[in-house]
Amino acid sequence: MPDRFQHFQQALNQRTDAGTLRTLRSKPQGIDFYSNDYLGLAQNEELQNILLKRVIDQPRLLSGSTGSRLISGNSPEAEETEKYIATIHHYPSALLFPSGYNANLALFSTLPTRHDTLIVDENIHRSVHDACRMSHARKLKFRHNDIRHLEEILQKQSGLCYIAIESLYSMEGDLAPLKEIAAIAARYGAALIVDEAHALGVFRHGLVTEYQLQHQVFAAVVTYGKAFGAHGAAILSSELIKKYMINFSSPFIYTTSAQDMQWTSIRSSYDFIENYPQLSVQLQKNIRIFRKQGLLSPSSEKSPIQPIVIPDNEKLRKTHQMLLEKGMVTYPVYSPTVKAGTERLRICLHSFNTEEEILKLAEILKQCKDELNN
User: Fold this and answer.
1) What's the CATH number for 64-275?
2) Does the global pTM surpass 0.90?
3) pLDDT in tens, 191-203
4) Is the domain covering 24-45+277-373 a CATH 3.90.1150.10 domain?
5) Alpha-carbon span 232 to 237, nearest angstrom
6) Please, what is the Cα angle at 63 between 62 and 64, to 5 degrees?
């Protein structure tokens, strides 16, 4: 490797020394307390059999789309799924994307102009930050879930402002004050964009729909790789915004469309969740069981994401390893994924976790804390 590329190796060495080097691994064996499969749909045999039957009836669903939606990749399946999604969420339109990352990249890189201002929650997903780098708009951050700070920033702006938040945050596990932020956005004529990636399915059709805020939320992003057990995403907004995105959004225009099987999976998951509301009921029961165990977490009492902050890399590594040895699979989150000093064990609860498993997890966590603090 020529010397001019040695900085790549040096950066990797620094991560190795800090114990934060990312590597690809096979799924570990053990009880799942780390995946985003909140309702167990990714492993649900009944749903899998529904999808299998549809493939047997229509093998073409498995074929590649052969091009972008604007060339040869559009299909009746994609268009029908978009109409179905828009109707379910009570929005005028929906536009499908192969992934949530792709949807956020498209939305935030396309709509704001150089005359606009993007105001984002400091804990917004990395995909939004990456999209903002592609935009000509100015980006400002407000303190996490701090509506006073958000309003202070808005008071100083002129021109169009976009506000970007998540309804349920993936690392904190807490909920946005969605109604309050929607009211502030309306007061200042700002366009509110809500990422519903982790709320969809957990709270039925997401919190924008749950709170009936469609007329106050300019656009919502719903993604299907978490509670829906599928893949892909949709941007919910007006017909005007959908047409604009189709015409001016590079991530949409120049991306080969996903195969129709992806859109079929999404629609099937909507139907399945409608037919089995007990899945989300059981999830909330499991969350209550975990929260009664006295473990401190910054998360919401209704969130399936229950992080335990362990602001010490070595203690975090040891806790994760001790849990793994006991058959409990969790996910340690080191900086720079989160701020230094806020490292945490990200625990995800699911509808399929048993009470016995949850109690065992809590017991081991308490043991780890006692051992590492002595």
Assistant:
1) 3.40.640.10
2) yes
3) 999 999 999 999 9
4) yes
5) 17
6) 120
